């Protein structure tokens, strides 16, 4: 089920969503200009490498073995990873989901509150991945944790929206308007099962960042709905 658009129009332009997308594209174009050695250096400096944080000696040993200097502060990766991607498909997929689900949430929260929500939820999502992969030596990059939080909040605040999706039925293309609650519930269950039966090392996907982000978004959505609608 590939989402094409939702059925709720936005009242205001989602400027923060546009800016986030533009920054992600700009960073990725910069990545594309790097040599393979420089790209690895960039990913390890600005992606989250749990072993770099949990082991005092890991960075020194890794630098001696690879010749790659880790110059950025460790903490910055919990923010910077949201603007770094591993490939064109990774970037396009994340930005497309942000474009579909982010505009209505920004409309609901307002520009500044949405930005704060996006960054803080991305940090919480990355902490979920970090807590369950404390010895990982692979850099986690991508905006999917923060975008999962956007989807989690959307699930709570806009359950009656429809997500018009491309669905192949018996090898024939079809467009189906799926209730947002159903679409996002199925998506979350897939992430949960993948997280339970796979790992970021085997799949290259940080499923627990998705799960943690979605849960954080849901909690915020329930808080906001209770505060403003009851």
UniProtKB/TrEMBL annotation:
Keyword Transmembrane helix: yes
PANTHER family, per the entry: PRESENILIN-ASSOCIATED RHOMBOID-LIKE PROTEIN, MITOCHONDRIAL, RHOMBOID PROTEASE
Cleavable signal peptide: none
GO MF, any single term: serine-type endopeptidase activity
Name of the protein in question: Rhomboid family protein
Gene3D superfamilies: Rhomboid-like
Membrane topology of the entry: Multi-pass membrane protein
Segments traversing the membrane: 15-31, 82-102, 114-132, 138-157, 169-193, 205-223
The organism of origin for this protein: Pseudothermotoga lettingae (strain ATCC BAA-301 / DSM 14385 / NBRC 107922 / TMO)
